[in-house]
Every structure is written in structure tokens, then in C-alpha cells.
Amino acid sequence: MNTTISIFLFLSGIAAGICLFAFKYIPLSKDNAAKEQKINNLKENIENQTQLSNNLKIEFENIASKVSEEKNANISLSKDNAAKEQKIHDLMENIENQMRDNAAKEQKIHDLTKNIENLSKDNAAKEQKINNLKENIENQTQFSNNLKIEFENIASKNIENQTQLSSNLKTEFENIALKVLEEKNAKITDLNRISLENIVFPFKEKIDEFRNKIDNLQTYEAEKMSGLQKELEKLISINNSVSAEAKNLANALKGDNKLQGTWGEMCLERIFEYAGMTKDVHYESQKQFKADDGKKIPDYIVKLPDGKHIVIDAKTSLVAYEKYYNTQNEDDKKNSLKEHSSSVKRHIDELATKDYISLPGLNQPEYALMFVPLDGAISIALDDKPDLIEYAFKKNIAIVTPSTLLATLKTIQYIWRQENQKKNVIEIAKQGGSLYDNFVTFVEVLREADKKISEAKSKTQEAIKRLSASDKKGNSLIAKAQRLKDLGSPTKKEIPEDLLKNGDKNDAV
């Protein structure tokens, strides 16, 4: 738009200049037609130029309008292009992400395909093995059937052969017997009575000998049976005695709660022994404690590493338990079961009131162990009260039986072994450190001794040199000492030859 206005003003200026030029340099003369004609031509040219300027102005305005529209369109297109470029950029990023995802998925597909191929190969191999096994089984089955048929045939043939052989043997035996009888009869006839006695008498002796053996055997068997009967009577007597004692023990246990407790403690002692624990080392029994509410004596205290403890109290309930197993009436069984489970629950409550876990001087977990010496007693109690163990835990009590307690004590014994090994390792480390320090000290002393020995050796060499060194008169100490001997001084020892030679050399020097 500004360019169009500038062009229009420029053309207007040209037209005005031409007019001024015409009026200034061409004097008007009414009679000068040529000049007027020129002026008219100039006016016409000016009008044409003005018209042309107007046309140009309109055309430029149109062009400017189009340019402005195109510019606005270009701006809009630029904005659209920028948005589209942003979309294209986002799409490219999405495409790249999709390509990466596709690559990862293709890799996964490739891996899965590979796994499937491997599995297919494995399955094929396994199917081949299965087919081979099936084929082997079929072959074995066929072979077994063939063997069975062959065995049946052989057995049938053997039976037939045995039957035939038996028949043949029977016939042959009969024939031989007839021949023997005929021969015997012939011999009897020939030899008469004497020959008959010679034949029958040995047979009679054999029969008598056989009869004696049978009599002796019957006598021996009779004596043996008599001794066996006595032993059996003795065994019956012992069995009756044991039964009576067992019955008395059972009655005593049923009737005496203290005796039941003693029996439970005996079972506990046996379990400690099986677990490899030593009394007063790994556990203590009947130890007294003074608490605020009086004196308390837990049955057993198991010692753990780091000064920790576990309290075990034995509880035995046999009356209802024995009734449950000995009665045949279902109602009595139910009542005995309820009575037994209630008895176990009472033991839990009694143990909870003793509050062993807060005894002074004990460092233990937040629960005590209630030992029941019969696994079956807890098993049937749980049949009636399934939440009995949970109930005990709420009372800070854990129920244990011989099997579970033995496993627990074995674990504790293993912990003790580990603790002892740990202490041994620590002691070995201490001893090793002390040994190393002593070794370093020994090396230092040895080096100092070596230094002193070297110094002493140097001093010795220096002293030897001084013995051999000559004074201002050319005499050494060795030579002077030897001269004393030469002058008649009584001596018992001799100066070594090498020193004398060194002294003589130094004297000569």
C-alpha cells in the first residue's frame, strides 16, 4: 500500500513539472497554432499520464490488496504449516515410539517364537521318548504274553510228560516189583526157611531200630513240651504281674495328680536326654524365684545363648483321656472328650495365672511352654476345641508335646553348638592376633639382636686387629705376650698360630 502511494506521488510530480515547463518556456500566442498544438498535445499527454497514473494506482491498489491477502493467507498457511509441522513432528515421535515398541515386541515375539521352537523340540523329543517307551512297553507286553504262552505250553508239556513219566515209572516199578517178587519167591522156594530168615531178619532189625528212634523222639518231644509248658506258665505269670503293675500304675496316675506331674517330669527328663542336653548346663529344674506375689518354682528353665531363657511346665491330664479310650458308649465318649478338653484348658488358665514370663532374673520370650506328655491327648482335645492352641497363645502359652518339644530342644542344642563355635572362632581370632603381635615383637627383638651381634662382631674384629697392631716400636700385643712366654714365664696355654702369624706380619711391617 505504501509503495502504491509513493508511485502515485512520483507520477503527479512529473506531470506538474511538465506543466510548469510548458508554461515557462513556450509563450502563449493566440496566433501561433503550432505552439498551441504542442500545448494541447502536452495537455493530452498529461491527461494520458494522469489517466495512466490513476490506472496504475488502481492496479497497484489491487495488487497490494492481493499481496496483502496473499500475505495474510501465507501467514495463515504458515501458522497452519507450523501446526501441521508440530503434528508431523508429534506423529514422527509417535511413529518412532511405535517403531521402538514394535521392535521390542518383535524381539519378544522372536524370543517367544524361539522358546516355542525350543519347547516344540523338547516336546518332540519327549514325545519321541514317550513313543519309544510305549513301543518298548508294547514290545515288553508282547514279549511277556509270548513268554506266558510259551510257559503255559511248556508247563502243559511238562505236566503231560510228568504224567506220562509217572505212568511209565509206575508200570516199570510194577514190572520190577513183580520181577523181584518172582525172584524172591524163586529164592524162597530154593532156599526154604533159612533163606527167608536171612532176608527178613535185616529188615526186622531196621524196623526195630526205627521203632526205637521213634520212641526216643517221642520221649524228647514230651520232655521238650513239658519244659515249654513250664516256660509258658512262667511267662503268663510274668505277664499277669506286669499287667497288674501297669494297672496299679495307671490307677495311681489317675488318682494322684502329683504322681501324674512326676510322670510328666520324667518324660521331660527323657526328652532332654534325647536332645543331648546336660542338666545345670543347658537347663535347670525346680529353681525357686521370689516374686512380688510369692515364691514360684517353674518345672524347667531352658538356657539359651546371650543369657536368654524359656520356661517349661509339665501338665498331665489322664483321667478323662483314659475314659475316652476305654468307653464304648458314644455319649460317654463325647462327655469324656469335652471333660478332657476342658481339663487341658484349665491347665492353660492355671499356667497363665503363674505368670512365669515376668519372673525377675529371667530374659525370655513373651510366652512359656506347657508340656503335655501325650501327643494324642492334645490331638483329641483339638477335635473338641480347635481354637485351643490360639487360646493358649493369647495367654502367652505355647502347647508342646514330646515330638514338637524334642524338635524345639534339638534346635536349641544346635543354636548352642553354633554359639560355641562362634565363641571358639572369636577366641581363635584373639589368640591369632596375640600370636601375630608376639611374632612381630620376636622379629623386632631378633633384628635388634642381629644388630647387636653385628656390632659385637665388628668390635671383636677391631679388638683382634688391635691385638695384631704394632705400636710405635713395631711390637704388637701378641708379640709382647709371646715374648713373655719366650722369656720363661710359666704358661699352660698357647696363643693360636693364626694370631701369631698376623702378629709377626704386623711386626715385620
Count of helical regions: 10
Rounded mean pLDDT is 69
Instruction: For the largest sheet, list the strands in their spatial order.
Output: 1-4-5-6-7
Which percent range describes the beta-strand content?
5-15%
Number of strands: 7
Task: Just give the CATH class of the domain at 258-430.
Answer: Alpha Beta
Task: Output the structural class.
Answer: mainly alpha
Query: In sequence order, what are the helices and strands, one letter per element?
Result: HHHEEEEEHHEHHEHHH
- What does the largest sheet look like? 5 strands, mixed
Shape, principal axes of CA atoms: flat
CATH fold name of the domain at 258-430 = Trna Endonuclease, Chain: A, domain 1
**Rg:** 67 Å
Please tell me the CATH architecture of the domain at 258-430 by its name: 3-Layer(aba) Sandwich
Low-confidence stretches: 21-26, 241-247
Helix content: over 70%
The N- to C-terminal Cα distance equals 132 Å
Explained architecture:
Belongs to the RmuC family. The chain is mainly alpha-helical and 509 residues long. Among the domains are: 104 residues; 173 residues, Trna Endonuclease, Chain: A, domain 1, CATH 3.40.1350; 40 residues, no CATH class. Helices cover 79% and strands 6% of the residues. It contains 10 helices and 7 strands. The strands form 2 sheets. Strands 1-4-5-6-7 form a 5-stranded mixed sheet, with helices on both faces. Helix 5 crosses helix 6. The longest helix has 223 residues. It is flat and about 195 Å long. The chain starts with a helix and ends with a helix. About 3% of the residues have low confidence.
